[in-house]
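Internal tracking record. Fields below are filled automatically when a chain is submitted to the structure queue. Please do not edit lines marked as system-generated. If the sequence contains nonstandard residues, flag them in the REMARKS field before resubmitting.
Queue: standard
Priority: normal
Entity type: single polypeptide chain
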Amino acid sequence: MTQDVPPLTEPLNNNEYTAEDIQVLGGREAIRRRPGMYIGSTDQRGLHHLVYEIVYNSIDEAMAGCCTKIVVTIQEDGAVYVEDNGRGIPVEVHPATNTSALETVMTTLHAGAKFGGHTYQVSGGLHGVGSSVVNALSSWLRVNVRRDGKLYQQEYREGIPDEEVKVVGEASDTGTIITFTADEEIFGKAKYDFDVLSERLREMAYLNKELEICFKDEGKECEKTFYFEGGTTSFVRHLNRNRLVRHRQPIYISKTIDSTIVEAALQYNDGFAESTFSFANCVNTVDGGTHLTGFRSALTRAFNDYAHKNKLLKEDEPNLVGDDVREGLTAIISV
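SYSTEM-GENERATED OUTPUT FOLLOWS
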């Protein structure tokens, strides 16, 4: 005897499925409806991601050799202010969109100078979507561009331009200022963590030697400035600052291969644990990657070659393994 099995879910009253049921969302609407797809979450981590994405644009200018200073300010009203002395976002009309290049970058997904490899050899963040995502997730955003002797400005509300790009003054230098307020409907009341943001900005300064990053929280009256002439070498010294090191100066290696710059800085301490951090385009690759695997393999091979060459290992003795050579190691790998 068989028994009828009820359906797992109740059927919809309307069994019709037509072309009208398929929604096509524009870039801005898609971002606002599913922000987690672009910035990971809408909690404090997502809020911080908005700051990082704007700073990444300034970092790209620094990595291109066109920016020496970045100022990041959390204003008393919760707005975020990011200024750099780079080349400034172009304001000419873009041939593909028939709007200014500035508006195109701020409102169009996958619009930017990071794809062809001509303007930026390397870049970080959400390539070509970072600024437009931040704009779409902000209740208000203003861009000021200093370029060609003029000061340009454009404001947006929830990613929609309030007006055309206009000239609001003169400028004696170049650069970009972006000020935005994260949308409370999406993130709730903005609560930025000064310590978390400052540590990330410190990392960026270490990875871009001789770049000055000033960070201020006006509400908490906190301020820090980061500038490191040693770059990744200074980073290693910072990580080993409370440890007894085995050699005074960190070992620094740098090489350019097919326009890719590879940097490694390492120093041994009296501990047993390994502290190796890897970065790609200034973004921490917490899950590792081929750059980290290659470094570890090369380090083990170098130790074994040296040990055999100097008769420290006999022919019948097994080679050193990775755990042997990485004990007490502090290293930074950046590509």
